[in-house]
Design a protein that fits this description.
- The strands form 6 sheets. Strands 4, 5, 7, 8 and 9 form a 5-stranded antiparallel beta sheet that branches. The protein has a 5-stranded mixed beta sheet with strand order 19-22-23-20-21.
- It folds into 3 domains: about 120 residues, Carboxypeptidase-like, regulatory domain (Immunoglobulin-like, Sandwich); about 80 residues, Immunoglobulin-like; about 110 residues, no CATH class.
- Helix content is about 10%, strand content about 40%.
- The longest helix has 16 residues.
- The N terminus is likely disordered.
- The chain is mainly beta.
C-alpha cells in the first residue's frame, strides 16, 4: 500500500510569529496549502535535563479505511514529519481530527516511545515530548508508580500494565503497580478483563518516579457464547504449523515481540529490511509499506512469520522483489492479537 502524501511544517526559529515552512515538494506556506485534513499537532522536544532538542524528527501517522470498487476495502496510512527548531518547537499541519494519531520523536540515538494521541474533536493538539537514549542498564531506568481503579474509585487488582521494551507487571490487591521503564516520553497501557483498555502518556526520567492514575471503564457483560473457528481460520493455523514443521519459515510470538521497544527491531532480527519483498509487509492480511512498522505497538501483536518469497503461499506471493529476487526475498506476515487467524 502506498503512503498518502504528508503535509509537514517546521517552525521558523526567528520569532513566534514567523510563517511556518512546509516540507512537502510544493514549497507553499502551510496556510496556503489545501491538505486533506485541517488539524494541527504542536509541541516541544526536550531531553531528560529539560533542555530543548533542536533538529529532532517528529513523525506522526494515522490510518483511514478506503473503499473502491476496483480494489475493495483497504487501509491507507497517512504520515507526516516535522523538524524541531532551535528552541525545540515543532508543528505539523494537515492532520486528521477525531481519529487516533500515532507519533514519536527521534534525534540521533535519542527517542521517545511510540505514543497514541486519543481521538479529539479539537483542531489543535499539543504534545510535548522528552527524548532519551536507551539505558545501558536497568539502574538507569525510571519508575512509573501508579494506581488502577474503576470510575467509582475502587481498586482494580491483577490488571496488566504494559509499555514497549519491558516485561509487563500486574496491579496488586490495592490496584497499585510499579513499572521500571526506559527514560523518555512513554505510553503506559492497562488491560483488565471486562474493562476497556486505558492508556496514559508519561515522561519517564532516569532514577526518578512518575506517579499516574488510570481509571478503567467496565463493559457490558454479555451471556457466554461458544466460538467455533471458521474453516479459513483453521486452515491458516494449520498452514502456519506446516510451514514451521517443514522449516521453511521463521516465527516469533507475542512473548518475544513485546520485548522490543519498536516493532521494526523485531523484524530486523528475523530478516534485513532491504530483503523484504517489495518493501512491503502484511498485517492481518492487509499490505503495508515497511514504514507502517514504526507506527505499531509491539505488544499489540501475537505472531510474526517470515517466509522465503519462492516458498510463500499463493495468496501471499510477492509481485515485487526489491533489492533481491522474488525467490530469495522475504515475505513478512504479521498478525495482531485481534486479527490472529
Amino acid at each position: 500500500m502506498r503512503l498518502a502524501p504528508a503535509f509537514a511544517v517546521a517552525i521558523a526559529a526567528a520569532s513566534a510569529g514567523a510563517q511556518a515552512t512546509p516540507l512537502d515538494s510544493t514549497g507553499a506556506a502551510c496556510g496556503a496549502m489545501t491538505p486533506p485534513y485541517n488539524g494541527f499537532v504542536i509541541g516541544t522536544v526536550s531531553d531528560v535535563a529539560r533542555r530543548p532538542v533542536a533538529d529532532a524528527t517528529v513523525s506522526l501517522g494515522w490510518l483511514e479505511a478506503k473503499y473502491a470498487k476496483d480494489v475493495g476495502l483497504r487501509l491507507q496510512r497517512y504520515s507526516a514529519e516535522a523538524r524541531s527548531d532551535s528552541l525545540g518547537r515543532y508543528a505539523i499541519c494537515g492532520v486528521a481530527v477525531n481519529t487516533t494519531l500515532n507519533m514519536f520523536a527521534t534525534r540521533d540515538s535519542l527517542s521517545t516511545g511510540l505514543l497514541a494521541l486519543p481521538q479529539r474533536t479539537v483542531r489543535v493538539q499539543r504534545r510535548d515530548m522528552v527524548v532519551a537514549a536507551a539505558p545501558e542498564s536497568t539502574t538507569m531506568r525510571g519508575v512509573v508508580s501508579g494506581t488502577v481503579r474503576t470510575r467509582l474509585g475502587r481498586p482494580v487488582p491483577n490488571a496488566r500494565v504494559v509499555t514497549a521494551g519491558v516485561d509487563e507487571v500486574r496491579s496488586n490487591e490495592d490496584g497499585r503497580f510499579v513499572l521500571r521503564a526506559p527514560p523518555g516520553t512513554r505510553q503506559v497501557e492497562v488491560l483488565s478483563l471486562g474493562s476497556l483498555a486505558a492508556a496514559v502518556i508519561v515522561d519517564v526520567m532516569p532514577n526518578d518516579t512518575s506517579v499516574v492514575t488510570l481509571d478503567l471503564q467496565r463493559v457490558t457483560t454479555l451471556a457466554p457464547v461458544t466460538v467455533t473457528a471458521s474453516a479459513v481460520r483453521q486452515r491458516r493455523i494449520a498452514d502456519i504449523a506446516d510451514r514451521d514443521r517443514l522449516g521453511i519459515s521463521k516465527h516469533i510470538d507475542s512473548v518475544v515481540i513485546r520485548r522490543y521497544n519498536q516493532l521494526i527491531y523485531a523484524i530486523e532480527q528475523m530478516t534485513p529490511l532491504d530483503h523484504i519483498c517489495g518493501g512491503q509487509v502484511r498485517i492481518d492480511g492487509f499490505l503495508f509499506d515497511t514504514t507502517e512498522l514504526r507506527y505499531r505497538f509491539p505488544h499489540d501483536f501475537a505472531h510474526v512469520e517470515v517466509i522465503s518469497g519462492g516458498l510463500a503461499p499463493m495468496e501471499y506471493k510477492p509481485v515485487r522483489a526489491g533489492s533481491t529476487t522474488i525467490a530469495n526475498c522475504a515475505v513478512v506476515l504479521l498478525w495482531t492479537k485481534l486479527g490472529m487467524p
